[in-house]
C-alpha cells in the first residue's frame, strides 16, 4: 500500500490516481518518471522540494496491469483519502488528472477545459491540473501548462495569506 508522504502541515495536497510500478515497489507516491517530472515542476513553479508538500493518491494500491482504478476500488479507498484530508487540512488540493479531479468534483470533467481553475467541492478547495504522465506523453506544452497552473496556485495562496514558504 502507498498511503502518501510529505509535510503534514503543508497548505497544498497533491492527489494522483493510483500508484504505478515504481511506487508499488518503493511504497512511495510519485517516484517514477511522472514523479520526477512533478518534483521538478513543484520546484520550478513553487520553489519547493517534494518534502515541503504532501503527495498521495486516490487509490492506495496499484491496479493490475496499471489500469485505471475501478469505481469500487475508488470507493474502498475513499475513507483513507478523507482521513488524509481531515488530518492534513490543506488550503488547496491539487488534483492530478481526470480521475483524481472526478473524485473531488463528483462528476466527469474535461481536464483540458478546467485545469488551473480553483473550485470549491464538497471535499475541498481544488485546482485540477494535468497528470505528469500526460505531460510526459504530450511534451513541453503540457509541462508548461502544469508549471503555469502551479504558479497560479502559489499566487492564490499568497493572495489569501496562507503561503508560508519564503
Automatic annotation (TrEMBL):
It comes from the Bacteria. Keywords: 4Fe-4S, DNA damage, DNA repair, Hydrolase, Iron, Iron-sulfur, Metal-binding. One of its GO terms (molecular function) is metal ion binding. It catalyses: Hydrolyzes single-stranded DNA or mismatched double-stranded DNA and polynucleotides, releasing free uracil. The keyword Cytoplasm does not apply. SUPFAM superfamilies: Uracil-DNA glycosylase-like. Its EC number is 3.2.2.27. One of its GO terms (biological process) is DNA repair. Residues 3-151 form the Uracil-DNA glycosylase-like domain. Gene3D superfamilies: Uracil-DNA glycosylase-like domain (3.40.470.10). InterPro entries: UDG_Type-4/5, Ura-DNA_glyco_family4, Uracil-DNA_glycosylase-like, Uracil-DNA_glycosylase-like_sf. Belongs to the uracil-DNA glycosylase (UDG) superfamily. Type 4 (UDGa) family. NCBIfam families: UDG_fam4. This is Type-4 uracil-DNA glycosylase. It comes from Acidithrix ferrooxidans.
